[in-house]
Amino acid sequence: MQKIIEKIPGHDSEIYGLGVDSIITAVILLILIVILRQLTGLLIPKIFNSVSVGSTVAREALSNSGKALGVAIGSWGGMHLVEDVDWLTSTLQLVMVIAIVVTAFRFVGVIHAFVMWTDEDGVLDGSQKTVVSAAESIMRFLIVIFGMVFIADALGFDLTTMVAGLGITGLALALAAQDTISNIFGATTVLLDRPFQVGDWVVIGTVEGEVMEIGLRTTLIRTSLDTVVTMPNANLTNTPVENWGKRRFRRWQPIFKLDINSDPNKVSEFCDDITNLISNHEKTMKEEDSFARVSALGPDAIDIGCNIYWNISSGKVEREVRDVFLIQIMELAKTHELNFHDNRRRHSA
User: Which of residues 157, 182, 207 is at a domain's end?
Assistant: First the structure.
């Protein structure tokens, strides 16, 4: 490259203390780096096309990390082409290190798409989402820490002195960052003990909602009002967690009120038919603990108490099954010629 620049007239002059030849070299390298940036930004997504299929986030992460990788490659090549220009070499080294850190940081977004690609059904369950979220947070944290060290080295800082300084100020930093450290340990506890995972409906203290994301410092919970609560992970280590997502069954105890003047024999048959309906239902379990019996007698009504265990994991399915079940109860009442209690009616003695 130097021989080519020497053929340019006036290459040995200076502008504001900088040699024209070094300025021309920097411009040429800048153009080459921009070209490489665009090329790698197009090639990297195509190389990992099978991984990023169906994930907009992964395609964007691959494109952005590819561009940063192109800058790093261009800077590395430029360092070997202009070894005799000290200021330009130092600048290229700094740009290369920063570009490598940016490449790694942006590439973290591909973890989610890679896990989906390796998954058999292509859909992540709550456990996988939890691991992916935590892995992304930990990776970004480590990349930032090591990236700061490499950038400091590229800027010419004495790392030995820095390490010694960190040893002296370590206690102060630990005290200042004790909340952050507590949150990191809290995240580790959640990952190891797994009291909940992404997608579970939980009650933590006064907060109730669906777990959206488990990060390195905080856990995001979306409430029933569609608001998002940011909860520090440190709070999770000493706060009881009620996880509705880990229920083995869904217990339902409806009470049906029949008219007080109903025929006792028909009421008994009605209870037996409800019990059979519960036992034979495809969505029920623990039949031995399920029942439908007269639970109370009032001045105007007969209370039929039921105990039902649904073998259902979805709230939507539970609502649908309840709807069908209640309609079947209405049909049974009509079959036995029984009327439900009407609060508007008064019965005389």
Answer: 182
Residue with tokens 């105990």: 307
Whether residues 203 and 55 share a domain: the answer is: no
Please name which of 105, 102, 123, 100 lies closest in space to residue 113, comparing C-alpha atoms: 123
Q: For 267, left (φ over 0), alpha (ψ -120 to 50), or beta?
A: alpha
Overall average pLDDT of the 259-272 stretch: 93
Per-position DSSP letters for 215-249, written without gaps between them = -SSEEEEEETTS-EEEEEGGGGGSS-EEEGGG-S-
CA 53 to chain centre: 20
Please list the residues that pair with 274 across neighbouring strands.
none
Q: Report the Cα 45 to chain-centroid distance in Å.
A: 23
Q: Which alpha helices (H) appear in the chain, and where do they start and end?
A: 2-6, 20-47, 49-52, 56-81, 86-107, 110-118, 126-154, 159-176, 178-193, 264-280, 315-335
CB 45 within 8 A of CB 59: yes
pTM of the model: 0.47
User: What pLDDT sits at residue 349?
Assistant: 46
pLDDT tens by residue, 151-175: 887 777 776 666 666 566 666 655 6
Domain residue limits at 275: 250-335
